[in-house]
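We both want to read discrete structure tokens more fluently, so let's practise on a single case. Would you write everything just below, so we can both look at the same thing?
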Amino acid sequence: MHSTVENLLKIQTKVKLKFENKNKDLNSTPKIIAVSKTFGMENIKPLINNGHIDFGENKVQEAQEKWAFIKKQNKSIKLHLIGKLQTNKVKAAVKLFDYIHSLDNKKLADKIQQQENDNNLKTKIFIQVNIGSEEQKSGISVDEIPDFYNYCKSINLNIIGLMCIPPINSDIERYFQNMKQLNQELNLKELSMGMSADYLTAVEYGATYLRIGSNIFGARN
């Protein structure tokens, strides 16, 4: 068995155990997005062959080169854009990605809506929350979330949940708890949080999508 498949199976087992101990109120175990940015198809193919369908990429152009052909061949694959989306890349992103995890401003929201209309497509979208109020990070500030969410709904975007990247070396549980509460206040079903270092904690706080890269594929060069 390929090592990436072994790694994923181990993670799935841990997630399932944690989930069953913690989240009786959710319908299903969190989905694992295998974050395949910078890795080639030789690393990714074994996961696809083993039936994994959720993959995450950071850059639109890299994703186009890697996934355009494979997604035509395999309609079940779900591609997640987890990196920052520039407005000039929205057209390509809307055509390629099933999920966008990084909506963080009105200009971008308008652009996505325009491209969805032009191409008769509907993308599943997460609003990125700057949960640690970090100047260097993207995301909507916590107190602006309700207004921004209402704006997105008013232009008919399909907002399915919130997403965050908490501060490094922080009180991660506090931030995950805040995210869970925000998500519940907006009555949203999905919650994108948790990466290789903290995904089991994210499961405790109701994450429904986990973005895991290095624990599956190994360290990036």
